[in-house]
């Protein structure tokens, strides 16, 4: 995070402060060092930096009720990023929702803050009021989690857990691709399995299916994810899971087009030839895609030039088409960074990628799609990606959870088997 020193319009300062708060929470959700104390310490440091950015907004730019509400909301949100309850955060968030009751995320933050001090019913009221302004998957997931907590001391725990399952399902209908929502639904089903006292085997199976969908989505096990979405659609058509399966196939089609259709462009060949020299540690050997083998490529580093950003409807992961020095085109998918962190023309380095080969077919309506030569590469923390134009990315990579590389990606359409 950097603090602006120039004269910026109030709107731009609010936008900068909002981006800082979003980055702070992205850091919180992805930074998990071995020491919990280190995590809290780093969160506090990042929180202080975000507050400094917020304080650059002049007093005269936060006098109007809506401006003041946004300021109070952002300040409360930044203060509440740490795991412990902070009354100061609650005070700011309370002011924000009083000034502007339509600030949905402020209600979410206030509910989370109050939850920390143990007032579960008040937290539920915050989430419920926020949902009255419109459905939101994050609020639905938090409400579902809170209801499972409330069920522990409820006279009718089964009914409360049923509400938890209901809200978890609603979150998935809003974004069937969201792995966290599937994980939350799995937790709800698992809680129901134990709470009922009847040891309903079906609840356990439903829990497992939801967990599998979450894992397959995040690990990009495309065949398993598609199969899981199909199974989910059969069990509960209201989840609209087949639409997500269709979107996943469209994404793979798009990646195939970028890899095959653009590889002959002279401009791209010229761009990929301009790889800058990278001072690698002596423990790493520079390699090209053709030298990699399945499994962990320990001691190897792949350097590539970013050619395209492949836009897709899902917020995560982000997909980029790259080329190595041999003009071999491939795709990386990245979690935990903003869409503008890596740009076309940037140079990135992957250290010790782990590959696994995938070959599967998927039938959709009147065609069968055959995905050949998908190679997955998982890269572990800490810093595993950096660029010649992006020294700041060194710090962002602490948020990267997964890279995926697809080599020689081809699609052929086969006759549908009846």
List the helices and strands and how they pair.
Layout: H1 10-30, H2 36-55, H3 65-79, H4 87-99, H5 104-116, H6 120-132, H7 137-151, H8 157-174, H9 179-195, H10 201-219, H11 222-235, H12 241-261, H13 266-273, E1 285-287, E2 295-296, E3 300-310, E4 318-323, E5 329-334, E6 347-351, E7 354-364, E8 367-378, H14 393-396, E9 406-407, E10 410-414
Keywords: Membrane, Transmembrane, Transmembrane helix
Transmembrane segments: 390-409
InterPro entries: TPR-like_helical_dom_sf, TTC5_OB, TTC5_OB_sf
Short description:
The protein is of the alpha+beta class.
| CATH secondary-structure class of the largest domain | Mainly Alpha
The profile of the biggest β sheet is: 6 strands, mixed
Number of domains: 2
Computed Rg: 24 Å
Instruction: Specify the number of helices.
Output: 14
Question: What is the CATH architecture descriptor of the largest domain?
Answer: Alpha Horseshoe
- Mean of the pLDDT scores? 75
Strand content: 15-25%
Task: Catalogue the unreliable spans.
Answer: 1-8, 365-418
Give helix and strand order, one letter per element, not per position.
Answer: HHHHHHHHHHHHHEEEEEEEEHEE
Helix-residue proportion: 40-55%
The backbone outline, from C-alpha atoms, is: globular
Structural class by helix and strand composition: alpha+beta
Total beta strands = 10
Q: Report the span from N to C terminus.
A: 57 Å
CATH topology of the largest domain: Serine Threonine Protein Phosphatase 5, Tetratricopeptide repeat
CATH superfamily of the largest domain: Tetratricopeptide repeat domain
């Amino acid at each position: 995070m950097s603090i602006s020193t120039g004269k910026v319009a109030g709107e731009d300062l609010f936008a900068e402060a909002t981006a800082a708060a979003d980055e702070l929470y992205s850091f919180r959700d992805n930074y998990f060092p071995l020491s919990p104390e280190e995590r809290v310490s780093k969160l506090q440091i990042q929180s202080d930096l975000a507050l400094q950015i917020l304080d650059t907004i002049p007093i005269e730019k936060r006098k109007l009720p809506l401006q003041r509400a946004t300021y109070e909301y952002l300040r409360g949100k930044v203060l509440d990023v740490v795991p412990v309850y902070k009354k100061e955060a609650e005070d700011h968030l309370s002011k924000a929702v009083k000034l502007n009751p339509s600030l949905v995320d402020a209600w979410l933050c206030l509910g989370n803050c109050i939850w920390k001090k143990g007032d579960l019913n008040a937290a539920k009221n915050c989430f419920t009021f926020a949902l009255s302004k419109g459905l939101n998957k994050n609020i639905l997931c938090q409400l579902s989690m809170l209801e499972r907590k409330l069920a522990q001391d409820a006279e009718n725990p089964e009914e409360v857990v049923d509400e938890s399952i209901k809200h978890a399902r609603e979150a998935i209908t809003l974004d069937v691709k969201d792995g966290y929502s599937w994980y939350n639904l799995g937790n709800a089903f698992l809680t129901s399995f134990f709470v009922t006292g009847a040891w309903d085997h079906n609840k356990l199976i439903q829990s497992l299916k939801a967990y599998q969908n979450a894992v397959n989505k995040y690990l990009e096990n495309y065949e398993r994810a598609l199969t899981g979405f199909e199974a989910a659609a059969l069990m509960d058509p209201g989840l609209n899971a087949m639409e997500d399966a269709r979107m996943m196939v469209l994404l793979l089609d798009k990646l195939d087009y970028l890899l095959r259709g653009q590889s002959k462009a002279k401009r791209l060949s010229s761009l990929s030839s301009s790889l800058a020299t990278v001072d690698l540690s002596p423990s790493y050997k520079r390699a090209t895609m053709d030298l990699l083998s399945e499994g962990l490529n320990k001691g190897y580093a792949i350097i590539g030039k970013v050619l395209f950003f492949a836009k897709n409807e899902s917020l995560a992961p982000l997909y980029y088409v790259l080329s190595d020095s041999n003009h071999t085109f491939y795709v990386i998918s990245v979690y935990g960074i903003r869409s503008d962190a890596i740009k076309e023309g940037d140079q990135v380095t992957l250290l010790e990628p782990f590959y696994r080969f995938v070959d599967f077919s998927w039938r959709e309506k009147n065609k069968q799609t055959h995905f050949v030569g998908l190679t997955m590469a998982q890269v572990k923390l800490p810093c595993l990606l950096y660029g010649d134009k992006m020294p700041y990315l060194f710090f962002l990579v602490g948020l990267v959870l997964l890279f995926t590389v697809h080599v020689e990606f081809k699609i052929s359409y086969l006759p549908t088997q009846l």
